[in-house]
Amino acid sequence: MAEDLVLDTAIRDWVLIPLSVVMVLIGILRYFVSKLMRSYQSPDAKVVKEGQVVIRARSLRAAANFIPLKSFRARRAYFSNEENGLLYVPKGQVPNAQAQMFSDPNMAMDMMKKNLSMIIPQTLTFAWVNFFFSGFVAAKIPFPLTQRFRSMLQNGIDLSTVDVSYVSSRSWYFLNLFGLRGLFSLILGEENATDDTQRMMQMSGFGFDPTKSLSAEKDSLDIVQHEWALPKFEQRAEEVLRRLVS
Amino acid sequence: MVGHEDSGASKKKSTDSSNDLPTFNAENLQNNTKIIYYSRTFLSIIGGVIAGILGYTGLTGFVFYFLIMAITSLGLAAKAKFSIHSYFDCWNRLLLDGFLGGLLSYVLFWTFAYDIVHIF
Predict the structure, then answer these.
(1) Which of A133, A206, B3, B6 would bridge with A169, disulfide CB 3.0–4.6 Å?
(2) Is the ipTM of this complex over 0.95?
């Protein structure tokens, strides 16, 4: 089963390395292009205000144990009071916010631009690979796969006796596509737009709904149990000082 | 590229020493998590190249990958002087975070090095 094919050195020089280099360069290019094309959206005052209220409520929840019980209760009532609490939004306003968000032309344009800037280079590179680099064995993957993968990995090679480990350049393209994500995150810093699968997952869960987040904050604020931590801090201070002195 | 020597030096303490209620400095925690991610990615690439040069095939290669990840965890734990709770919020984050994320990069560079050295 393992007849070792000897492959031409020219394949290595003219297929593997150029393909990888081209993909790295396209990734870098895409990163810079997306940086240049990022349009600045002037933030909506209402959205910013709601965001800040949510942040305040969140820090109250996080630091609840450092303030006395009465002041915590006062703050919580300020947020979740039924009549004029900041987090309480009447039901009638819910559909308004959603409709506005999705028909907002700026946001739709932005999303489309980001999607396009990701899809177009991939499509072009794939077409280029298929046109130039098809019909021969490109690489050997070091681990064995079952016969079912043969059609996926060896699409240009029409011999059925060749080991499944010998793959065509299309599969080399896909391997590069997924494997270079890690490399991009190292050389481009955290903010790079090449992580397409994660971003697609983010896009599907998009629906930014301010009212939903407000009511979620209100609920989580309501269930916080207050346990005042400060009485124990005297003991902590004592321990620390003891350790310093001794 | 975040250098391997530098990455450990910028870990910051995210909790106070003896706490009944642990409090975390979110920014430092995030920074430390990022360092873990960078270390794992970098080592998975290097490990891939090493595995390819050494000619590992099949299962041996995957075992080598897990070995590299274990060494990464050990190295990070040693850098944190084994007092995990002052740098991270739980053990799992240090040991298991990003474990499989480097697998694809590892396979890519493993294939690359293996082909260049052994087939061509």
Answers:
(1) A133
(2) no
What is the pLDDT, as a whole number, of residue A1?
40
Indicate whether A223 belongs to any domain.
Answer: yes
Residue-level pLDDT at A229? 72
- CA–CA distance, B74 with B94 (Å, rounded to integer): 9
* A189 touches B at CB < 8 Å: no
Most confident region among A42-56, A192-206, A216-230, B101-115 by mean pLDDT: B101-115
Q: Which residues pair with A139 in a beta bridge?
A: A167
Is the distance from CB of A87 to CB of A222 less than 8 angstroms? no
pLDDT of A95 > 70? The answer is: no
Q: Which of A10-19, A64-73, A185-194, A234-243 is modeled with the greatest confidence?
A: A234-243
- pLDDT band of B24, cuts 50, 70, 90: low
A–B CB contacts, 8 A cutoff, strictly below: 88
Chain B environment of A166 (Cβ under 8 Å): none
A141 touching B, CB under 8 A?
A: yes
Interface of B with A in 4-43 (CB under 8 A): 17-21, 34, 37-38, 41-42
Could you tell me if residue A4 is inside a domain?
A: no
Q: How far is CA A108 from CA A96, A102, A103, in A?
A: 17, 7, 7
Quick check: is A81 in a domain? yes
Mean pLDDT of A71-79: 79
Partner-chain contact B114 A183, CB within 8 Å: no
Q: Please report whether residue A1 resides in a domain.
A: no
Contact A240 B18 (CB under 8 A): yes
Whole-angstrom CA distances from A154 to A157, A170, A198 are 5, 8, 28
Pick from B41, B108, B119: which is nearest to A185 by CB? B41
Tokens linked to A38 = 């990022």
